[in-house]
């Protein structure tokens, strides 16, 4: 499977599941507070994508007031895109148009240098689009719709996180676009990680697939830290899983000896045949890259074990040393994922440390 960006899909819908009504005016479903939140999510993304249908219907700018503007991305089969649309004329950022092969020559001629037109095969292949974005350095993609695009991304199972906002009114028009159309969606329940009231709307935030598994396992690692004996240093938990998310070993700081680090304690329990080629180690704290207690750091233990994926919540604060575990692991070609929203849970187990809590 080719590498792709982390995909965050975002939509605001009415109580009866519509993204818009049938009028010419753009329907505001979000509250002012929610539009501010969406703006911040945009600022945190490397690129933002809407379908050609949304460009034609809404003429959006897709800029952010809160931070750097993301690269703008769209997709089209027909090639019907107006070079005068605000998508192309606003923002000093790259604009990428993924087009089905037959539309490419005319679109290149029509758009000139206002956008880069990328051939995305025929029929348009969303996996190819995502692999190309990854090659262009896009690590985090926000997909803002509309209906056909949300249906496409969700049924192709390429959405990691879904932000769904419910507005307190009905649309009730059969011809209006719904959040999604019919299709074969991923089976199983998504992981609800947050509900938030923003003015009169509610945000529901879900994780799917690997993102949901990572969140669950990292939370387990953080909860293991509660078993650590009292300590003057970090209280950390670790979980190691195989390619199928089966737990191979767990550990926590001070488990058998006061000098034990959580990752080290978990790694020490693995037999010689442990299937580590596609394993993940979850650690509540960034793996250490310098230590006084023992000669080998957890970063080095993980490198030596050949574990390719590392997921952690809390960047090691400079209490004892300047930590570089994440950078060293990335430099060695390992996949390193930070989930900072779980850091407060890890900090709760470490309020004995200076400057924490
Ligand atoms: N409330 C909200 O959060 C949002 C609401 N909206 C609303 O959504 C509506 C637009 O939605 P919709 O009309 O569905 O348009 P979309 O924005 O979802 O764009 C769909 C277009 O994408 C192109 N496309 C290319 N390949 C595919 C594929 N495999 N599957 C699907 N699309 C493909 C096609 O363009 P082409 O036709 O050029 O070939 C297609 O018509 C508007 O009313 C807008 O206001 C939009 C975003 C957010
Ligand atoms: N109406 C609506 C949304 N619509 C989205 O916002 C886009 C407009 O972007 P811009 O021109 O940059 O402000 C529009 O095309 C569509 O993608 N989004 C939301 O979060 N809530 C809403 O109620």
Automatic annotation (TrEMBL):
UniProt entry tagged with the keyword Cell wall biogenesis/degradation = no
The protein's annotated pathway: Cofactor biosynthesis; riboflavin biosynthesis; 5-amino-6-(D-ribitylamino)uracil from GTP: step 2/4
Gene3D superfamilies referenced in this protein's UniProt entry, alphabetically = Cytidine Deaminase, domain 2, Dihydrofolate Reductase, subunit A
Enzyme Commission number(s) of this protein: 3.5.4.26
Q: Which GO terms describe its molecular function?
A: 5-amino-6-(5-phosphoribosylamino)uracil reductase activity; diaminohydroxyphosphoribosylaminopyrimidine deaminase activity
Return one Gene Ontology term, BP aspect.
riboflavin biosynthetic process
Q: Which domain of life is it from?
A: Bacteria
Domain CMP/dCMP-type deaminase residues, every copy: 212-336
Swiss-Prot/TrEMBL keywords: NADP, Oxidoreductase
Q: Which InterPro entries match?
A: CMP_dCMP_dom, Cytidine_deaminase-like, DHFR-like_dom_sf, RibDG_C, Riboflavin_Biosynth_HTPR
Top EC category:
hydrolase
The catalytic activity, as recorded, is:
5-amino-6-(5-phospho-D-ribitylamino)uracil + NADP(+) = 5-amino-6-(5-phospho-D-ribosylamino)uracil + NADPH + H(+); 2,5-diamino-6-hydroxy-4-(5-phosphoribosylamino)-pyrimidine + H2O + H(+) = 5-amino-6-(5-phospho-D-ribosylamino)uracil + NH4(+)
Which family is this sequence assigned to? Answer: In the N-terminal section; belongs to the cytidine and deoxycytidylate deaminase family. In the C-terminal section; belongs to the HTP reductase family.
- Stated role: Converts 2,5-diamino-6-(ribosylamino)-4(3h)-pyrimidinone 5'-phosphate into 5-amino-6-(ribosylamino)-2,4(1h,3h)-pyrimidinedione 5'-phosphate.
Output this protein's name: Riboflavin biosynthesis protein RibD
């Amino acid at each position: 499977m080719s590498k792709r960006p982390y995909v965050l899909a975002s939509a605001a819908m009415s109580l009866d599941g519509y993204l818009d009504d049938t009028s010419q005016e753009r329907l505001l479903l979000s509250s002012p507070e929610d539009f501010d939140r969406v703006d911040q999510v945009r600022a945190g993304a490397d690129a933002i994508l809407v379908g050609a249908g949304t460009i034609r219907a809404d003429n959006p700018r897709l800029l952010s007031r809160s931070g750097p503007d993301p690269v703008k991305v769209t997709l089209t089969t027909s090639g019907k895109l107006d070079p005068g649309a605000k998508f192309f004329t606003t923002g000093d950022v790259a604009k990428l148009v993924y087009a089905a092969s037959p539309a490419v020559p005319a679109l290149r001629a029509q758009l000139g240098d206002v956008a880069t037109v990328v051939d995305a095969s025929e029929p348009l292949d969303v996996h190819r689009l995502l692999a190309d974005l990854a090659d262009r350095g896009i690590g985090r993609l926000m997909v803002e719709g509309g209906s056909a695009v949300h249906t496409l991304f969700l049924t192709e199972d390429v959405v990691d996180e879904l932000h769904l906002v419910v507005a307190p009114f009905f649309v009730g028009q059969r011809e209006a676009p719904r959040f999604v159309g019919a299709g074969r969606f991923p089976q199983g329940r998504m992981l609800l990680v947050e509900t938030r009231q923003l003015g009169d709307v509610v945000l529901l935030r879900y994780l799917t697939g690997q993102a949901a598994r990572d969140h669950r396992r990292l939370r387990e690692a953080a909860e293991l830290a509660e078993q650590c004996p009292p300590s003057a240093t970090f209280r950390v938990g670790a979980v190691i899983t195989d390619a199928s998310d089966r737990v191979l070993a767990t550990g926590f700081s001070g488990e058998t000896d006061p000098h034990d680090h959580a990752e080290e304690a978990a790694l020490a329990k693995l037999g010689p045949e442990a299937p580590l080629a596609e394993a993940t180690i979850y650690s509540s704290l960034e793996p250490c890259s310098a230590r006084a207690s023992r000669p080998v750091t957890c970063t080095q233990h993980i490198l030596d074990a050949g574990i390719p994926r590392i997921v952690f919540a809390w960047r090691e604060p400079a209490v004892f040393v300047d930590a570089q575990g994440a950078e060293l692991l990335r430099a060695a070609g390992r996949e390193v994922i930070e989930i900072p929203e779980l850091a407060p849970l890890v900090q709760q187990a470490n309020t004995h440390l200076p400057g924490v809590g």
